[in-house]
């Protein structure tokens, strides 16, 4: 059922400038200029245009906007009760903290080792002041609550969450193979078989999330992690939301935004299928279907929907990408009566044995080089900060905003 939001009505993009998050920590990539003390500007972080194939792209930060309104009454469906962290309750002091694996808009992810078992995990650390300043309180609470409500082989598992007086911490399963982003940069583009494998596993991840009425909203190669056997694990539930019908929030990563998000229409799960079309295109072409350094020009291109197809693009893949990137929701694959089955039955993906893929019995096309379970070598090296974790004395005005941490 499609319900109209009450007030406030969402602004249109014409009169609301989407806030481009300027991360305090920046992504550095081996292909980008060496990390230095000088911060990159937000625009420097943008990806290289498609025409400059020799210039590998850099990580791209998501955009966010305040939640304008939502017909979904929050995340009340999920209780804060998480049996996995109840007994014994995990705390920061239980971990050795090792190097940074990745940085995002509001914090960083560190490799950690759980002292009692010596097992490795990834710990996402978010500064409460930053989260509040960027009006991401609801998103961060969603991230924590939805992650703990989910259980799928294609999604990272949340082991526990807690806070000190400064930071929020989420302890996640450590996905040792690194980002799909890294492999895509290394190979520039993937052969069809490789792209089909990742497409298939992302389809299964989305099927699971959508069955839970969760929209993911931030598909991009940086958020697709590769496990030790080469299988997909989606991370970053920073924009995931329980949405049984429609929502209005302007958020996502510019290259991957569906037209209906840009137009500030109410939107639903179909935005994830749109972003899958962007990912398929990017895996096969080596660059996204729409690109401009200026976000407003980029949005115009997305709305115009004119895709510059590389000459060698497989006609069947082209057909599927077209059906996913269509702005017409009554035609978009994934959003029709057949649901995700239309995508799974499409001729480009026809050879996939979906039951085998679901059981992770199809051998992955790329197996990461991993020397031990806590090997961080598949992740880029980031400048470390000398932040102290575990501050329980500073003033903590925001604790009550994060009740499930
Ligand atoms: N479970 C994990 N195992 C290994 N590495 C991880 C894990 N989760 C996240 N990372 C690394 O940390 C990076 C940043 O994490 P994440 O995307 O969750 O942060 P973010 O702040 O939401 O990022 P952004 O807002 O820029 O998309 C990821 O791209 C990945 O490289
Ligand atoms: Mg991310």
TrEMBL record:
It is an enzyme of class 2 (transferase). It catalyses: L-seryl-[protein] + ATP = O-phospho-L-seryl-[protein] + ADP + H(+); L-threonyl-[protein] + ATP = O-phospho-L-threonyl-[protein] + ADP + H(+). The keyword Nucleotide-binding applies. ATP binds at residue 124. One of its GO terms (cellular component) is nucleus. Residues 1-19, 44-61 have a biased composition (Polar residues). Residues 1-61 are annotated as: Disordered. One of its GO terms (molecular function) is ATP binding. Residues 350-405 form the AGC-kinase C-terminal domain. Keywords: ATP-binding, Kinase, Nucleotide-binding, Serine/threonine-protein kinase, Transferase. Gene3D superfamilies: Phosphorylase Kinase, domain 1, Transferase(Phosphotransferase) domain 1. Residues 34-43 have a biased composition (Low complexity). Pfam families: Pkinase (PF00069). Its EC number is 2.7.11.11. Residues 95-349 form the Protein kinase domain. Belongs to the protein kinase superfamily. This is cAMP-dependent protein kinase. It comes from Dimargaris cristalligena.
């Amino acid at each position: 059922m499609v319900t109209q939001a009450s007030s406030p009505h969402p602004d249109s993009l014409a009169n609301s400038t989407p806030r481009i998050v300027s991360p305090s920590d920046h992504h550095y990539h081996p292909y980008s200029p060496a990390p230095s003390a000088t911060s990159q500007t937000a625009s420097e972080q943008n990806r290289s245009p498609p025409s400059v194939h020799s210039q590998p792209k850099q990580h791209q930060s998501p955009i966010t906007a305040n939640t304008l309104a939502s017909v979904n009454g929050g995340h009340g469906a999920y209780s804060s009760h998480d049996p996995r962290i109840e007994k014994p309750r995990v705390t920061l002091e239980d971990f050795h903290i090792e190097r940074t694996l990745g940085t995002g808009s509001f914090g960083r992810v560190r490799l950690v080792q759980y002292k009692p078992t010596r097992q490795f995990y990834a710990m996402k650390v978010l500064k409460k002041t930053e989260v509040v300043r960027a009006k991401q309180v609801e998103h961060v609470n969603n991230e924590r609550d939805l992650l703990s409500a989910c259980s799928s082989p294609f999604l990272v598992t949340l082991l526990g969450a807690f806070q000190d007086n400064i930071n929020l911490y989420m302890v996640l399963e450590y996905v040792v193979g690194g980002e799909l982003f890294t492999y895509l940069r290394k190979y520039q583009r993937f052969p069809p078989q490789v792209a089909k494998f990742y497409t298939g596993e992302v389809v299964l991840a989305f099927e699971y999330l959508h069955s839970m009425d969760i929209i993911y909203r931030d598909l991009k190669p940086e958020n697709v992690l590769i496990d030790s056997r080469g299988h997909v694990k989606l991370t970053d539930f920073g924009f995931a939301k329980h949405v049984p019908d429609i929502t209005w929030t302007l958020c996502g990563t510019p290259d991957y935004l569906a037209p209906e998000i840009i137009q500030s229409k109410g939107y639903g799960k179909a935005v994830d299928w749109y972003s899958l079309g962007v990912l398929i295109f990017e895996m096969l072409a080596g660059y996204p279907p729409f690109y401009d350094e200026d976000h407003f020009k980029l949005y115009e291109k997305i709305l115009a929907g004119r895709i510059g197809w590389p000459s060698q693009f497989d006609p069947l893949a082209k057909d599927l990408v077209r059906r996913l990137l269509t702005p017409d929701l009554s035609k978009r694959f994934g959003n029709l009566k057949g649901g995700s089955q239309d995508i799974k039955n499409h001729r480009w993906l026809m050879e996939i044995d979906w039951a085998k893929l679901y059981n992770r019995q199809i051998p992955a096309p790329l197996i990461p080089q991993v020397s031990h379970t806590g090997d961080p070598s598949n992740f880029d090296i980031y400048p470390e900060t000398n932040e102290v974790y575990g501050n329980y004395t500073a003033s903590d005005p925001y604790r009550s905003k994060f009740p499930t941490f």
